[in-house]
Design goal:
heterodimer, A: mainly alpha, ABC transporter involved in vitamin B12 uptake, BtuC, 13 helices, 2 strands, B: alpha/beta, Rossmann fold, six-stranded mixed sheet, globular, binds adenosine-5'-triphosphate, binds magnesium ion
Chain lengths: 311, 496
Amino acid sequence: MSRKWTHTLQTAGPLIGLILIVIILSILSPSFLSLNNILNVLRQVSINALIAFGMTLVILTGGIDLSVGSILALGGAITAKMLAGGMDPILAVLIGLLAGGIMGAINGIVITKGKVAPFIATLATMTIFRGLTLVYTDGRPITGLGDSTFFKMIGKGYISYVPLPVIWMLIAFVILLFVLKKTVFGRGIYAVGGNEEASILSGIKAGRVKIWVYIITGVLSAFAGLILTSRLNSAQPNAGMSYELDAIAAVVLGGTSLVGGRGWIFGTLVGALIIGVLNNGLNLLNVSPFFQQVVKGGVILLAVLIDRRNK
Amino acid sequence: MKPIISMTNISKSFSGNKVLNDVSLDIFPGEIHALMGENGAGKSTLMKILTGIYSKDGGTIEVNGATVHFKDAKEAEHAGISVIHQELNIIPYLSVMENMFLGKQLTYGKTGILKTAAMKKETKRRLSQLGIAIEPEKTAGDLSVGHQQMVEIAKALATDAKVLIMDEPTAALTDREIETLFKVMNGLRKQGVAIVYISHRMEEIFRMCDRISVLRDGKYIGTKPIQDTTMDEIIKMMVGRELGDLFPDRDKSAGKEFLRVEDLSGPDLLENVSFSVKEGEVLGVAGLMGAGRSEIVETLFGARAKSGGKIFIEGKQVKIKNPFDAKKAGIAFVTEDRKSEGLILGMSVRKNMSLPNLKTLSNQGIISSKREKASARNFIDRLNIKTHSPEADVKNLSGGNQQKVVIGKWLGINPKILILDEPTRGVDIGAKKEIYNIINELTEQGVAIIMISSELPEVLGMSDRIMVIHEGRVARIIDKKDANQENIMQAATGGE
Ligand SMILES: Nc1ncnc2c1ncn2[C@@H]1O[C@H](COP(=O)(O)OP(=O)(O)OP(=O)(O)O)[C@@H](O)[C@H]1O
Ligand SMILES: [Mg+2]
């Protein structure tokens, strides 16, 4: 096989996979391709995609962030409590996002300044942030968030037919696409993941790049938490549990290398769509939720195996 | 006598670019056969085809008259062909012993229980044959590049091969280690082992080899017995033209003092290192391996912690805490180990070249791809880097061309001080001259240059002054006119 061909297959692989899954599902279930259902899938995907976008940056630097689900929960809970206390909704939202950023910064600082492996560091903060969420909420859902249209719009709004969370996802996608492709910061992310020592010796502030990547992931995760809170009209203390796994799965399905330095945000979008489409399609086909897990895991494994073969 | 290896009409293309074109080569038992050619001529590729690492597009390979098709390096090794690759293949977090016995550990029968003591002893023995004492349990990654290279050599020798391929084995070694290696090679020749020896160092080739074959642009140019040829003829075969003087004259004399380092000390090795470099001056740095030459420049560049000392640029003290500060102060650093320190192997040539220079190639943090491409093009042309495109991954370039990328990336920042740590390691003779010309061009622009080199002719040929390092201290600083191989070596070994 010629190099060019392999290359195309590798980059287009996830997309081809997605298209195949869509074709199969639309044959098996006629209601799958309805506009309503597609928009529904996209809305369900948006939360995972937002987290996975951040996760892509983290993984590109050679790291990992297991604490995203906990950040989602605490970010959502903080905003919810402030809303319930009657605070200005815009301010409450900003504070929730800021909290996400701070949690991300903590991750980044522990990893770079404390020189703790990202897996261990974020495993610990995952537990800490979850614990803080339980303390903060007393282990009970926060309800009675008031009736600010602004806050309701975040998770439940539409622009004509398109749910707003989908718009948020697309905006984040376009921005990060640009950041990775065109900016000095984006180039730094790839460089640090490709060879940290050589990057530092080229005068790149590797530590700073990494801290920012975790901050961005924290903010995106908290934002996903706001969408969820807005949709449910309440903040659940156990929200976002094991969301890190779906996010990592989306990144890997998209062809980004877990070793760092290689990958792209478009792949992650496709990866998140694959997971979303599978969830939705298997539901439509009345596959038992237990068996759905088996199928999802199998798809991930298959994708990684195909990727291996091409390298 | 019949050849032990006979390669006929070998061809190979990578993504449509022909890198070997009908190359034929015979290797006889008991000869040291030099394979020469410019960077990217196809030497390493030819040897990788011989040892089954790459598949060939056409041609035949015979070993002892029988056609072979090796599928991987293991099969070639079974047929008695062993390689020391140009790029180090040491696994850094394994011990020296584990590296030596990788994939062929000694065990009790088929139990999988390791004979650790036996392997330890064997490792020690093999290494001491090469004249070096390293503890077998030491983590390989902690060794100097030179010692890692020696471990690789010991590993290849341990296979008792009939054919030994050495792809630039001496590039990272100092004179003393090279001498031991040559002794070992002479011994092997007497035993009838065939050695293919790839190097860019003419003196070595003419001292050690029996015959020389030359490749140019993937084509076989010819084979000459050593006694019937001259360096000039070989260079002409390699480059396709006369080269003239290797060390070009520099007519501009150095200006006023530009960089001054006072009492630089490090936590483990360096002690009160003081020196200065003038505008337009080349300060050569000589010394044995492990003397602390790289440590000095790494500390100066902020890549290594210092325990004391001051740095002045144009008389003003500067604080350099990390490479970012150093770059801001106008210092560029072409590192010694291109694979781990100099390059991001999975990135393209263009992106590697712009890495230290992104600030000037961008506006408000957004990279101007037009300027980035133009800059990459400029340095590819200026340094004559052989790559089929600026977008090619740098790992697919030949070793010497990778080295030129490292130099190119630092020229991009328009440095005022340029540190070169073994800048011509693995670089062909034509390119060496190009690099020397660039050094001279830079001195004319007033750049202060610090050049570490283990090749004494290079230090002598290029430096205005030579600083000799011994055990972390400055042993002597010698003016060009007073310097010679003898007094440099004497100072380097601790003599007066
Ligand atoms: N895996 C690869 N993919 C694409 N191109 C390659 C690959 N390996 C080598 N090349 C190209 O083949 C050509 C010959 O490379 P090779 O490494 O054989 O040169 P060389 O003679 O050993 O040079 P040097 O003296 O610099 O080591 C170069 O142009 C190089 O870019
Ligand atoms: Mg080579």
